[in-house]
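This part of the workshop introduces the protein records we will be handling. To make this concrete, we reproduce a full record directly below.
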Amino acid sequence: MATHVTIIGGGYTGLSAAYEMARAGIRVTILEQEDYLGGLAGSFGVGGTQLEKFYHHWFTNDVHITGFIDELGLADNIVWRPSRTGMYFANNFYKLSTPLDLIRFKPISLVNRLRLGLTSLKMRRFTDWRSLEDKTAGDWLRELCGEHTFQVVWEPLLRGKFGEYWEQVSAVWIWNKIKLRGGSRSKDGAEMLGYYRGGFGSFCDELVDRLRKLDVTLMTSTSVQQLLSDGTKITGVQTPDEMYESDAVLATTAPPILAEILGMSDLSPDSCRPDFVMKLGETTYLANICLVLELDRSLSETYWLNVNDPSFPFVAIVEHTNFESIEGYDGRHLVYLSKYLPVTDPLYAMNKKEIFEFSLPHIQRMFPKFSESWIQEYHVWRARYAQPIVGTSYSKTILPFEAPIPGLYLSNMTQIYPEDRGTNYAVREGRKAGQKIAALLN
């Protein structure tokens, strides 16, 4: 019988790992607890087109995902467009799409505007990220931009993104964010972003079709109860309905989920390291709530609006149809409102209607002309494990690819440091994991 690998998690990491292993002649089964594939890039239907539950796009330097799409012969489906970005600060809207927009950004002095622009250029060229490991993002940005610019531009964004953890975030994290975004530019300095025709869900469907042709088994709505062992190594995966014998298991889930699975597993003391399980469980994440509005008219002219107002509960407003045409969505204007938060936050416990009603007065305050009558439909999506907290000296805490439990391998979004989450790195790490496991087993 062919070597068999079970992958826990059907996001882009698991899907791309399965692709590499299946091509190497390994029999692969993917087990996904949700009723859809794609992970945080999972989609839902709007006007006959697929839309991501959580906003997504690509930068020009996202070469791993775009290269993978090219290998599959689907490169013509990637479209690149200039984006319109901005900032909401002190009850005003400011364009920040081009260097000229930055020069016109009046909340900080001209000297500080120039200093901010030079900081962005410096970050794009900076490569020695290890020298930043002991610095927080706040301390480093203060050094580079000055206190006033930090308070206007950076502190509200860090607070909005990380909440109570904002002062712990590593300078490496913010360096990578600015490097990616700042480097995704056209010759005239405009930000260029990429998208897949028909949505990321369309690409996911294409990839799933390729996997099925490679005889990969894809199981959705299938939770993993425990891992099985012969006392020396992992031998299988138990779900509520079936046992999957496995020569290896690749876990692509958030580490706390794997910790729960291992905690329920009947593994011998020799084959299960309690210290490792504890480390998995201690990985800190923020959750995310995304309110998606379907409107009969546009909310603003901006695609990506950073909200630098601590009284506004959402860190960003992303009007997807200021980037992608409304024609594909039955004429609906689509707006995301994103909030990162701990699961203990009362907002996370609210139901769909409560989150919607909580949000309305805040939208009305920011956009006085807005009326609830504009809303044709709304959706609320939650992700329990959305953003790992990347603190100082993070490289010392990264989990290994090969777990200290023989037969178990890990590939997840906490391991991509110094980069941050995204389908680009999910594909990079997934393919790498698939190739490594195939080489070990073959």
Notes: The longest helix spans residues 423-441. The CA atoms of residues 290 and 338 lie 5 Å apart. The chain has a mean pLDDT of 94.
